[in-house]
Amino acid sequence: AQSVTQLDSHVSVSEGTPVLLRCNYSSSYSPSLFWYVQHPNKGLQLLLKYTSAATLVKGINGFEAEFKKSETSFHLTKPSAHMSDAAEYFCVVSEIYTGRRALTFGSGTRLQVQP
Amino acid sequence: KAGVTQTPRYLIKTRGQQVTLSCSPISGHRSVSWYQQTPGQGLQFLFEYFSETQRNKGNFPGRFSGRQFSNSRSEMNVSTLELGDSALYLCASSTGDLDGYTFGSGTRLTVV
């Protein structure tokens, strides 16, 4: 079985400071991992994905994440926060299991960016 | 290219009624997945269809059903609506490989 734990339900940063959103996963098989962002009253937008290639993954809008198998983590970072980054972020794990795909979402982290 | 289109955007239904939601995936995408998003339960997986076949199913009662047509468009049906079915229903499409999913803007269902 697979699961995702987002360690912080809320994170508040000042504009221009680094962002760290933490995600730990559990998977019986080699997982694919994703980060999605959801702005208010919008659907989900894919930020980046890890699919067993490079462990450091670069995404859109300056975000990146590092897959650490030994720590079962996939934390999302950005060097400098922008006001437009304020949104909810979801860590997602997907694995192929006996030919069928299961997709599990974390509970989300709401990012606030203070001016 | 056009994104994932969900219709309608908003729905208000009465308890006990049934509802059908529609999702048109990105052209060429054969996989369509459905999710329910509520403040209390977060994002929960309903089911996934690939080439008209249900490939995976989440832990929802049988009142929730879906189907996929030959053009990859998908519909989700909820029968005998309950107040707790009020949620944002999101549809996502993909090629079926591990390349991520593109989500629609969702259908907000309110059951009164």
Structure description:
The complex is a heterodimer of chains A (115) and B (112). Chain A has 115 residues and is mainly β. Helices cover 0% and strands 58% of the residues of chain A. Chain A is globular. The mean pLDDT of chain B is 92. The A-B interface holds A 32, 34, 36, 42-46, 49, 51, 90, 94, 96, 100-108 and B 4, 33, 35, 42-45, 48, 55-56, 90, 92, 98-106.
Q: If helices are DSSP runs of H or I spanning 4 or more residues, what is the number of helices of chain B?
A: 0
Q: Name the biggest interface.
A: A-B, 22 and 21 residues
Task: Report the β-strand fraction of chain B as a percent range.
Answer: over 45%
Structural class of chain B: mainly beta
| Fraction in helix of chain A | under 10%
Number of strands of chain A: 12
| Topology of chain B as a string of helices (H) and strands (E) | EEEEEEEEEEE
Class by SSE composition of chain A: mainly beta
Quick check: average pLDDT of chain B? 92
Q: Runs of chain A with pLDDT <50, length 5+?
A: none
Features:
heterodimer; A: 115 residues; mainly beta; six-stranded mixed beta sheet; four-stranded antiparallel beta sheet; B: 112 residues; seven-stranded mixed beta sheet
Secondary-structure map:
The complex is a heterodimer of chains A (115) and B (112).
Chain A: E1 3-6, E2 10-14, E3 19-21, E4 23-26, E5 32-38, E6 44-50, E7 56-58, E8 64-68, E9 73-78, E10 87-97, E11 100-105, E12 109-114
Chain B: E1 5-7, E2 10-13, E3 19-24, E4 31-38, E5 42-50, E6 53-57, E7 64-68, E8 74-78, E9 87-94, E10 102-103, E11 107-111
Parallel strand pairs in B: 2-11
Antiparallel strand pairs in B: 1-3, 3-8, 4-5, 4-9, 5-6, 7-8, 9-10, 9-11
Gist of the model:
The complex is a heterodimer of chains A (about 120) and B (about 110). In chain A, about 0% of the residues lie in helices and about 60% in strands.
